[in-house]
User: Fold this.
Amino acid sequence: MPDAGLIVPTFAEPHAHLDRAFSTAVTGWNRSGSLDEAVERFLGSIDRMTVEALSPGGRRALDLLYDAGVGHVRTHTAVGGPLEFRAWEAVEKAAASVPGVEVRQVAMPISANLDAREVAACIREAAARGAVAVGGAPWRADDPVSATRAAALLAAELGIGLDLHVDETDDPAHNTLAVLAAAVTDAGLTGRATAHHCCSLARRPESVARAEAEALAAAGVAVVVCPVSNLCLQGRSCGARGLAPIGWLRDAGVLIGIGLDNIRDVVVSVGTADPLRAAWLMAIAGHLTGEDDLEWLGRTVTAGNRRICNLPEDVDEGGTDDLLMIEAASLAEAVALVPPRQRLVG
Ligand SMILES: [Zn+2]
Assistant:
């Protein structure tokens, strides 16, 4: 053990998909690398998605997350339709086998139409099974405005959070952020809603995007940026990169998290279970390489992610005893070098 290092709480991961990690034996690989092909392959493989087929991949991902120092995972689990709750139960089974990582599931209906009665019923059942948030991708719905509003109202009714995949595309015309901000405010969900991805925000004019970022901040909507998946999936035809405009979001005062998203699944064939590796990639891809920027990325991945997962941010706050020592002199160095780390307890 090194003499000294940074002591931080174990990492909290705000955006995983344990239900599909390492599951390409079931789905096949994504040949085009596009989100559309991933969705098509996923939906075409549902008959083969059993608890037995999906849980080993979740367990492998959890083992890797544990080794990286992650103590808490918020994972988006596909539910409903012909899949029913088999993926949910697979995640429960995987979580039971890795007790060093606390797992919380977000209900992500396979239908994007969150305003449909049967989809709402499925989310209600997920809430009864312990879902911590209403998830899903209403920006892909037949009526994105209606689906986004319905999701916020349902989260408020159920007394859980709202964790939506939002505008995960490089097409600037897909824009549900203003609708989301208003829906969150109207539903009384301020501080309990998170918009994940928000890729198309970067493709709109700066003045427009900054105003949208300010609306998110005012509504208390956090944003989770997923550099690995969005650099892989978006921008393949237009040449832009898929990242949300993290600088503009930061300037607006939005609470930001960094998510790992997919690990070797039908959506993205690469992946990492290490939050510091994701922050390192964000530093390079987002031109956040100043020392202050690196320090900020380190705070985002150590504290911001915990806040988004409703955990105490600091070592002292809440008396957490699940600590990590990172072999680095500063948070900036931890992001820059992605060094080894050890769990002190847990
Ligand atoms: Zn996702």
